[in-house]
Structure formats: structure tokens, C-alpha cells
């Protein structure tokens, strides 16, 4: 937990210049540490009703201030109303959130994450690309890297530094409804395509304001649910886990991805978040 929190704080304090991370960490209460490990969906702090004007700020400022100032929330994900927003509205949202952070004692920036999977599709007028299964069919690593560069530029331009991609699940369950999000059935190809996406997204320096941090998902065995339905139990022998499902994640870690999303289902009777 210590190393996770220090890494989390360090990653989001880089923009604020030199910060003594150890002193900051030691000064935090248990409640603040738990808050930093808490991520909420945007709709928690969203104005009620439907979005009718894309120029209006969708944030319920009272709830946002409570989440950040009282509960010390460290991260927010997803789009307002689960809809693509104008670039200007995204910038307004991110600024509002970070402005509230500046009113806190520790001033640890919120880490905002989004699913920019086949393009920055939660940003209006962004470039859309084929899904991962189609890119895998091209076997074109350079094209995949270039696509990741474009997605990174458009995502970071609105103030979002974290992308929940690439999907490194190996697609071996044909009735699983999210099969199209994978790079297919071959662990080697999945690993190589994921590696190319990471390099395109992050470059050599995550402090570069045109780059975003990647997130490897869904660790591990998420793509082989026994009955084919999403987020349902998987039963996978350990040798198959090691030979088929783990290698792409190993390659992703070695490529420099700083975060991993855990399987929200269960494998062999053990929930991913408790394994």
C-alpha cells in the first residue's frame, strides 16, 4: 500500500514542481490515504437531469467539494452524462475539479481517467479509428503506434492524463460480447500490439503534455467467462493462465505502462480484487 500511494501521489504532483513526497505521505491521515485510493464515477458529482446544453458546466459543485474536501477522493473517471463533450466543456470540467483541489490542505491533484479506446470518442469531433480486433487483423505495429499517438494528443488536450487502454485480454471466448475490444486470440500478437499502443501513447516521457499514461486491462482472465456473459466467473487452469493470459501483461509492464486495471469478475472462484 505504501509504495502504491507514494507512486500515485508522485505521478499527480509532477506538474506542481518539486514536492517532498515522503513528507507529504507521512503527513496524511488514514482517511486521506483511503480517499486517495478511491475513484468515483463522474455521475456522483453530476447535475441531475439530462444534458441539454453542452456549454453548461455539468458539475454539482456542492457534491464535488464534499467528495474532494471531506472524503479526499483521489480519482474520477468517465464522461459527464456518459456522452461525448466539447473540448471546451472538458477543459471547464477539469479546471473546476482541480480548482477545488487547490482549496484543500494537501493540494494533491485529482487523477482523471477515461476510456479512449478506438479514438478519443468521449470528445466531440475527435478522430475515430477501428476497434482493436480490426487493428490486430492488420498486423501493423507502426500504424497502431501512430493511432495511439493521435488518441493521446486529443485526450491530453482536454486535460485528461490517463487512458484505460490497451486491452491485453486474449480473446478465446467467441460469445463474450467484448471480444471486439481485444487484439484477438494469439498472446504474442496481443502483446506486440499492446506494446506498440503503449509506446505511441506515452512516448519516452509522461511529463510531455501531449502524452497520456496507459492502463493495462483486465488483469487477468477477464476475457474467458465460462458462460460468455461479461463479468461472470471464469475457470482457467493455472498453466493456461501463465501460457496464454499473463504474457501480454508482462510485455505491457516491461513496455512501461504505469497502471493496471484488475479483472472485476472472478477466476477459479476468487474475485480479482481479492486475489
UniProtKB/TrEMBL annotation:
Its EC number is 3.2.1.21. InterPro entries: Cellulose_Degrad_GH3, GH, Glyco_hydro_3_N, Glyco_hydro_3_N_sf. It is an enzyme of class 3 (hydrolase). It catalyses: Hydrolysis of terminal, non-reducing beta-D-glucosyl residues with release of beta-D-glucose. Residues 29-271 form the Glycoside hydrolase family 3 N-terminal domain. GO terms for molecular function: beta-glucosidase activity. It comes from the Eukaryota. Belongs to the glycosyl hydrolase 3 family. This is beta-glucosidase. It comes from Brachionus plicatilis (Marine rotifer). The lineage of its organism: Eukaryota, Metazoa, Spiralia, Gnathifera, Rotifera.
